[in-house]
Specification:
Largest sheet: 10 strands, antiparallel
Number of helices: 12
Radius of gyration: 27 Å
Distance between the termini: 40 Å
Helix content: 10-25%
Number of strands: 38
Strand content: 25-35%
Structural class: alpha+beta
Length: 742
């Protein structure tokens, strides 16, 4: 049983295979935090873990007890304004303007399995035996408002999820300017905070900083999770490595404005909070209304960063991603964007598809430019009707030709945006996010449709579903290329304008949910100027995301390495593109571009009709290799070996091992060649120590422990000189290992 309850002491012990999370009801009937970390034995009382201490200059709850102060006590879901001067987890504004509350413990209920979160993506169970949910009820009797704290324990996945629901059963309206999804107080501050930050074309780079007194945070105010900050961070002990040591991972299943922060107080307690960003947020609850926060996922590992990442990978791959494509090997695709941009017609598209089919491609994706009068990025967004100038036979005619080749057919949309010159904008200017009387700020020559309005979502559903049926689509790339400004919704009154950003994301989820439910065979890939909305919320609907618009193999090493700290390889769209690279202008070998893209959902983004016969044969071989190892690469256990964020960043290596340890594919990448290099070895991971492995292409056999502990000397395996006699830059080597059958 993953949840133990000591009734007499009102203690709750949430236990996974490797983790314990313990809290209790304090004497003021609020919740106190006792322990979160490596699994410990259950006992009848954890009172010894509660350590109230006298401290000077604090605010006490009781006149006769100077030890009991919310100023210093570790808490579970702390409130504002009653002696705790740290940032609260929530705030309730009342009709008289007060923000002071007193939510007291009223009881609990245990639920087999896990209830759905209404209108929100969340992890799930396929059987009620997989998890157990604890619902803690707190009530403010004066306000007649209930607060439900939900904890779901996934025992076998070693994961705990949390969310909160507010319900106003009183007679007065209330407002929620702060409603975080979780809070936990850790007993010290000896941690390094790890975050994934960046910008367009350099998303999810790894940054680290030692915790200091005060607040350290990451956030988004862009109405999207953003390329700038990802809704994930980890706290590792200073000596924690990939393979050893303790680390806590926190991830928010949400795609909008978020805040994730750690506040270190004057006694070195670290308060971790995560949820919707309170910036420009305020939610009104009328009598009888409820508000549900997004879900936060907590992972603790005592087996290093790899242990944390592999737990996230398996959990998100199997209990967040859904539908047919969750467990199905993803098709090798070709996208025409960097091959043609807007300059194409039906025959050009079919010629690319014909050549791609010969090379082994399985899915053709037509990108931007197929609709309205879209010859550049200044027009036609919102007019999702085929451009007969380019496609005279419509989507149906093109699809029939593509599918007649034996390929599946996919299409690009950017449903959340509109162009000023579009027919849609002319008909419905009020459907745009804009503030009355204020100038509209363009971004990428486009504006944001108000997805908080049902009629907007309904219109987009009708247009996309029509295209799915007309084109017999197997795939949709859903793009989103600008952030929200001048936030105001014409669909709601002034008292609800600070709800707009959250309601917008709920509208995005609503459209995703309708489309994925009605068209379960269609593979959805999320995109937001590349990886600008790469988050668990979107993963619930679209099992893969375009990882970055930057397809340069060297830059992708950092992007994919950082992304791997929380997201599985099956979620990372990764393509081979032409050189010079369109984002950075770099020339890299075709083999290296493929060697990076293998570690994701593989494809191409170029015009194969312009390739030489030698290049086409190389592509054919690459696709054959990927298909042979596709299941392993998409669903195996991923190990990071050498980091591009450490040292000079010149070498990166990683590998994937099958769950049964019978197969592995490793890769080593070297950015710049070294003159007369030292002896270099690759130290593999995750292999069976006492089993023998054949290194394909070398004729050599090694024990797993040799490869992991003695390493593989690279001199004879990594080419150091090119045909011209010059040392090779941008070099990649793939190692395929197969267990020798006894």
């Amino acid at each position: 049983m993953p949840i133990f309850i000591n009734e007499e002491n009102k203690e709750f012990h949430l236990q996974t295979q490797h983790t314990s999370y313990i809290f209790h009801v304090m004497k003021n009937k609020q919740l106190g935090q006792l322990y979160y970390g490596k699994r410990i034995n259950h006992r009848e009382s954890f009172g010894h873990l509660f350590e109230p201490r006298f401290r000077p200059n604090v605010v006490n709850v009781y006149p006769d007890d100077q030890h009991f102060s919310l100023t210093t006590l570790k808490q579970e879901y702390p409130a504002y304004g009653t002696g705790d001067f740290r940032y609260p987890a929530y705030m309730v504004k009342q009709a008289n303007g007060s923000r002071i509350t007193n939510f007291e413990y009223k009881g609990y209920r245990l639920i087999k399995g896990k209830p759905k979160l209404e209108g929100l993506p969340a992890t799930y169970v396929e059987s009620s035996e997989e998890a157990e949910t604890l619902d803690i009820l707190l009530t403010d009797e004066l306000l007649q408002v209930d607060l439900h704290l939900f904890y779901t324990v996934f025992d076998q996945y070693n994961a705990i999820t949390r969310s909160v629901k507010f319900f106003n059963r009183g007679a007065q309206k209330i407002e929620l300017p702060v409603a975080m999804s979780m809070s936990v107080d850790l007993p010290d501050a000896e941690y390094v905070m790890m975050q994934l930050s960046g910008s367009w074309a350099r998303e999810r780079h790894l940054y680290e900083r030692k915790l200091q007194p005060g607040v350290q945070s990451i956030s988004s105010t862009r109405a999207a999770s953003s390329a700038q900050q990802n809704p994930f961070f980890a706290l590792r002990r200073q000596d924690t490595t990939e393979d050893f040591g303790e680390v806590y991972g926190f991830s928010l299943v949400y795609s909008g404005n978020f805040l994730a922060q750690v506040e270190v107080d004057d006694y070195h307690v670290s308060r971790v909070t995560m949820g919707i960003n309170p910036f420009d947020f305020n939610w009104r609850l009328d009598p009888g209304q409820a508000f549900q926060t997004p879900e936060a996922v907590m992972i603790f590992s005592s087996c290093g960063l790899t242990g944390m990442s592999q737990t996230f990978h398996k959990f998100y791959r199997e209990r967040l991603a859904r539908g047919k494509w969750r467990d199905v090997e993803r098709p090798v695709l070709i996208n025409n964007w960097e091959g043609t941009y807007f300059d194409f017609d039906e025959d050009k598209i079919v010629s690319i598809a014909e050549e791609a089919k010969k090379l082994g491609v399985e899915l053709f994706v037509l990108d931007d430019g197929w609709f309205g009068k879209r010859d550049d990025d200044t027009t036609s967004l919102g007019d999702w009707f085929v451009d007969k100038r380019k496609l005279p036979n419509g989507l149906k005619g093109l699809s029939e030709r593509i599918r007649g080749l034996g390929l599946k057919f996919g299409l690009w949309f950017e449903p959340e945006m509109v162009s000023i010159g579009s027919e849609l904008y002319q008909a419905h200017p009020d459907w745009v996010i804009r503030t009355p009387g204020r100038r509209m700020s363009p971004g990428r020559n486009q504006y944001v449709l108000d997805f908080s309005r049902d009629e907007v979502v309904d219109y987009l559903y009708e247009r996309i579903s029509s295209a799915i049926e007309e084109g017999s689509l197997s795939y949709i790339k859903w793009d989103m290329n600008r952030h929200m400004s001048e936030i105001y919704s014409a669909g709601r009154g002034p008292e609800r304008q600070q709800e707009t950003a959250h309601r917008y994301i709920l509208g995005v989820y609503r459209l995703y949910d309708r489309l994925t439910s009605d068209y379960p065979d269609v593979l959805f890939e999320s995109c937001a100027s590349g990886g600008g909305r790469f988050d668990p919320g979107i993963l619930y609907y679209a099992p893969q995301t375009w990882t970055s618009d930057d397809t340069d193999a060297v830059e992708r090493l950092k992007i994919q390495y950082g992304t791997s700290f929380v997201y599985p390889l099956s979620s990372m769209g990764a393509h081979v593109s032409a050189v010079p690279n369109h984002q950075v202008g770099r020339f890299t070998p075709l083999e290296t571009r493929a060697a990076v893209a293998y570690f994701g959902t593989f494809g191409y983004e170029l015009d194969v009709t312009k390739m030489s016969d030698e290049e086409k044969q190389a592509v054919k071989n690459q696709i054959a290799f990927y298909k042979e190892n596709r299941k392993l690469l998409q669903f195996g256990n991923f190990y990071r070996i050498e980091s591009p964020f450490e040292g000079d960043g010149n070498v990166t290596s990683w590998m994937v091992v099958s769950p049964d340890q019978k197969e592995a594919v490793a890769a080593r990448y070297q950015v710049l060649a070294k003159p007369n290099p030292a002896w270099e070895r690759l130290y593999f991971k995750g292999l069976a120590p006492d089993k023998q492995y054949r290194l394909e292409g070398s004729g050599k056999v090694f024990y797993g422990d040799e490869l992991m502990y003695a390493g593989l000397l690279l001199d004879d395996l990594v080419p150091q000189q090119g045909k011209s006699g010059q040392y090779l830059d941008f070099n990649a080597v793939i190692f395929k290992l197969s267990m020798v059958e006894e």
